[in-house]
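Hey L., structure's done. Input below.
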Amino acid sequence: MAERVLSHKRLSSIKQFLYGSPYYPEHWDADVRSQDAQRMKAAGWNCVRMAEFAWDRMEVEEGRFDFSLFDETIQSLGKVGIKTILCTPTATPPVWLTRAHPEILRVDERGVRMAHGSRQHACTTGPLYGENSRRITSAMAEHFAGNPDVIGWQTDNEFNCQFSECHCESCQDGFREFLAEKYNGDLDALNQAWGTAFWSQTYRSFEEIETPRPNLPTHPNPGQKLDYARFLSWAVTRFQAEQIAILRQANPDWFITHNGIFRHIDYRGQFSRDLDVLGYDVYPFFTHDPAERVLNQCFNLDYVRSLSGNFIIPEQQSGPGGQGPYFHDNPEPGEMRRMVYTSISRGADSVLFFRWRTARFGAEEYWCGVLDHDNVPRRRLHEAAQLGVELGRVGPEILGTYVQITAGIAAGDFDANEAHDTLPFDLPAPRLTAQSVWRALFRRGYPVGCVHPADDLSDLKVYFLPHWEVVDPAWLPNLQTFVDRGGLLVIGARSATRGLENAVTAETLPGVLRGLTGMTVEEYGHQNHPESRPLAIDFAGNRVQSEYWYEVLQPEGDTGVLARWQGRYLSGQPAATLRHVGRGVVVYVGTYLTSQVMAGLWPLLQPLCGLQPLLPHIPLGMEVTLRTDGKKKLWFLINSTGQVISVPVPSGTDLVNQRSISGSLILPNNGVAVIKN
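Output:
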């Protein structure tokens, strides 16, 4: 198989827009299930996902399998044209396995072993658990290989959702194996990379190394912590790859996905290259503020798209959800439908609602689905059915298109995120700083998205690299080409302060970026209490307060000063620099790119890049997105303002309402138009 190139513009391989829900026949008796196939068909369902938590129903004891419930269910749904995505059920091993082999259970940082009774309690690094995983996967793959109604698979379920670290004996062995492989068996290279001369940590053999655990008694080695995070991703990627190999051998026509996005997995690495398409579970109501909810959903979708391109949604929230201490809002009329269109507009090529019917028992008995506990059709099902009719028209047009953007924010790099977490210093994480910049542009109606520095930057007019402590020198030629061709590159404070092994660079800051920026950082400091010692930046007469961090900059050669500090002993010192490179410009800003800083900075940047909104005069809170295949254009206009609004629109056909349209459009709250031209 050819190596998959991951890009924000990568198209998915999905051949049909899939619409439906996860389905749990094991939770219901035959009488309750009897109407499900016809109801699903009437609502526009063409796909369900099954079996991710049903290992105990399929392997009732070691080596004895019973797939009859799923055979019957798949056949019943298939008769009305509904296909099935099956899942490997390895997130919930059965009690007969955990009681016989408690050594497969995960161990936390305090040495406490997990217990049966929840999920994700088994460690994916253990050879015994791997053997059991391969057995159930092989049995399922062989059994369903010839079933025409099974079209694809999801590996496991939400790797690392509940528990992303483990310190069991299998992990100790696995960590040593990973390190020996990474450092080619050279212990001197490991000691050098980690700086083990500090605190007398020098290792004499790989067997002496253990997984790093905080507060036992104090701070672990930062290089060791970063390599531990890399090991966790390596381990789950290997575990998944074993399942994928079994499934592909059984039926190469199946597509394979996984539903993320969670900690300690490199989704821009081999993990996603092994998949046909990445999946992302969308639960906007974890954000309680409705205004923030819209922004967070849009940004999170853009972030996921930056990892490997267009994606599918195995779980999209359809109702309120609650476990233990929380219970979400119930979507208001039209809100469930609107949030699906938001997902599609920003890169989703299929959407499944979580879930078909709300469970009456178990830890998720208040994670509500399209149907309530009593199985009575109500407005959520009616709204889903309306959406099903619309997606019959919109869905086929979506496939083969990507989201067009001209402003990019660096996001989604595993090492940058994990390195920050080893030494956070009470500073915003890379994902949060990316979102701050993204919001400033999104609110102004610009076509903005997230893009990795190694990705295709050719469509972009402006690209932000905000506050990544670790910058891979391999990215520099791509950034240089982007600027040479006329792009505006904006780099934030603290960038390139550490090397790939998480040790501080010996180069004068900004390290490997110094040649591109044409400046140096002469002094820096954390603003622990900016209210008592305020610092402002003067952006051409517009004074903006700085938060979190300051840097005093020294331009070199032909680099100029874009902004200066105001306040205390820093007054008059350079706070931001500008350098012309080729046909483009490089700007370095010596503080964090907060919303306030972006408000002062953007009026100076916009003329340098010429970025324009997708459509003029769009009200605040309105979502406008463009998907295209290079010829056909699909304009998404989504009203999340809470009010009835009039918006300018391009001429074309509104696929949602089946009408020709031009000039302007009145959209009600939660209203949607998808205009094709």
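The first helix runs from residue 30 to 33. Residues 346 and 458 are 19 Å apart (CA to CA).

-- N.
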